[in-house]
Amino acid sequence: MVIDFNRSGKPIGIEITAPAKLSAVALNRVLRRFDLPPVTRADLAPLRAA
Known about the structure:
alpha+beta; 2 strands; 38% helix
């Protein structure tokens, strides 16, 4: 996973480099650190299908 930040340090994008290995729990841990809303397993379904 690669997180892109703007100049002020706010996350502006997340690149998921290994979608088959990423769980919603792990992604939500990262999102929580930045006060962002959580994802569901259904949100990740298109990534797993790709």
